[in-house]
Q: What sequence folds into this?
């Protein structure tokens, strides 16, 4: 049974990274489409302001607390999650796991060519990994059914959807009944990291919960997006009162 905390209307799972991985591994090996989303403060804030998107998130099988701001918010409302569970780390754990057990993954999203590069690099990093197929994230609405068929025909058990929030969550929600994979995960810009186009923060920043600060220093143009964090914290405080 899920144990969650309500943060601005979004049900966030009270889980550790270890438990999240074990649960995701079960999903990959269990028929029926399970869904994992990885809400950070920006995503939770968007859901707070958009009831339709909030409903999409709350129909997932698991929502990990991706972002130290979500962890702090849970503490503010005196219902803390154990720790941050980054979607990227969870995805990496799953890839390592299925590389040893034989399930395959389909990579969907990013610019043309990125998923193919990610495939090559991931297969090198995780010997035994089976990437059943790839498809870029630049498509027209009328091409959606064809993409779903391509994913289904690949025989993949795991689907990574990397279209950015909220597009990826809405895509998964809209196509959940038509997909024949066992687990769908929305993991944002992870394909660009897998492909080597974007570097993740050094271990020091990750361990000190300063990954957001590293990204800001590298991409000051993201200031508008980072502004969502103080807005998120203030909204949590206001709603608590």
A:
């Amino acid at each position: 049974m899920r144990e969650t905390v309500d943060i601005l209307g979004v049900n966030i799972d009270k889980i550790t990274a270890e438990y999240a991985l074990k649960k995701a591994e079960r999903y990959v090996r269990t028929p029926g489409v399970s869904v994992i989303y990885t809400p950070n403060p920006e995503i939770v804030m968007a859901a707070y302001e958009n009831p339709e998107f909030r409903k999409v998130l709350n129909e997932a099988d698991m929502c990990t607390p991706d972002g130290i701001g979500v962890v702090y918010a849970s503490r503010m409302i005196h219902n803390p999650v154990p720790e941050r569970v980054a979607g990227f780390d969870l995805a990496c754990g799953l890839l390592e796991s299925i590389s040893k057990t034989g399930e395959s993954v389909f990579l969907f999203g990013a610019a043309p060519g990125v998923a193919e590069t990610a495939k090559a690099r991931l297969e090198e990093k995780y010997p035994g990994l089976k990437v059943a197929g790839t498809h870029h994230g630049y498509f027209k609405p009328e091409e959606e059914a064809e993409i779903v068929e391509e994913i289904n025909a690949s025989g993949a058990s795991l689907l990574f959807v990397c279209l950015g929030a909220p597009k990826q969550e809405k895509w998964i929600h809209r196509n959940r009944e038509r997909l024949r994979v066992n687990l769908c995960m929305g993991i944002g810009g992870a394909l660009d990291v897998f492909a080597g186009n974007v570097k993740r923060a050094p271990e020091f920043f990750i361990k000190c919960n300063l990954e957001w600060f590293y990204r800001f220093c590298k991409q000051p143009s993201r200031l508008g997006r980072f502004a969502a964090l103080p807005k998120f914290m203030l909204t949590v405080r206001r709603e608590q009162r």
Summary: Residues 87-101 form the longest helix (15 residues).
